[in-house]
Amino acid sequence: MRWALNRFFYNTKKNSLMTAYTMMLKEKYCDTLGVLAEDYPSFYQFRYFYRKTRKLQNFFISRDGLKNYQRNNRPLTGEGVQEFATAVGVGMLDATVCDIYLVNDAGNLVGRPILTACIDAYSSLCCGYSLSWEGSVYSLRGLMLNIITDKMSWCRKFGISIKSEEWDCDMLPATLVTDMGSKYKSENFEQISELGVTVVNLPSYRPELKGSAEKFFNLIQDSYKKHLKGKGVIEPDYQERGAHDYRKDACLTMAEFEKIILHCIIYYNSQRIIENFPYTEAMIDEGVKPYASAIWEWGRSQMGANLITVDPRELILTLLPRTIGKFDRTGLKVNKMGVKSLALDN
Prior knowledge:
- By secondary structure, this protein is α+β, with helices and mostly antiparallel strands.
- It folds into two domains: about 1-75, no CATH class; about 80-320, Nucleotidyltransferase, domain 5.
- About 35% of the residues lie in helices and about 15% in strands.
- Strands 5-4-1-7-8 form a five-stranded mixed β-sheet, with helices on both faces. A three-stranded antiparallel β-sheet has the order 10-11-12, with no helix packed on it. The chain has a two-stranded antiparallel sheet with strand order 2-3.
- α10 packs across α11 (about 255-270).
- The protein is elongated, with a radius of gyration of 28 Å.
- The N and C termini lie far apart (about 80 Å).
């Protein structure tokens, strides 16, 4: 029975249990002429053996593949974020395509923007964001610059007035947690480790390890979609046949949409109540409110907070693309091309 299950049931053909039982009788209990022997196990005995010895892990992996098992059927164990984010200073990076179509200043359709964000794993505070048309290493550089920017002056550029305690983040987390995206594994982004930052790449199919970042995008998009219906927002039926073409409704520009995103982030940081946060006695005694900004302010003053002060110019120079050049008799050559003059900034 074990032989029959391994050969006819636990494989990618996905045979039924009855088919595996029939093939077992044909292979093991029939003679050369195909005549069934007098003594053979019944289907109920075969099914009883299967139910007694089955393991769901073997069932899913053998029939659907290891990748499908890790993505859809793998059990979630452990405490996830709390295993490596016990204090402020662990930033989770992620990006998503916004569910809205935008136009340019002339009113022509451009497409859907990409929102990249850094979320503090301990407090769920949005440390910074970047809104761009292309999610490359340049969007990451914009994200890093936004993290260390004074948020009061940044919001003032969009005509938004906030208090310092609502979004008081101008330091870089010492640990950045990312997935296996190509831009996060690029040599260009890894240069940020020269500033003392540790980059941690999570294994594949482990979104729960950066659940704070995944939840952030859901909350932000749910915040603006209900107010922008009929203005280019994509509904769940946009891929169905005969659905409405939401590109025709686009009317917002990138600058207008970024102002909306800023309002959503400010509300997320300073007014959204965080449920089921593991409050300590010290936090209760000091009256820390259940907001991301309040938890961030309390956490950054505690032992274990790991934040780095970085100069914007130093950050830009660190994340610039690099290559190798060689000097010979004719001068400097970079990528097999000669460079006549080289300007050095003293």
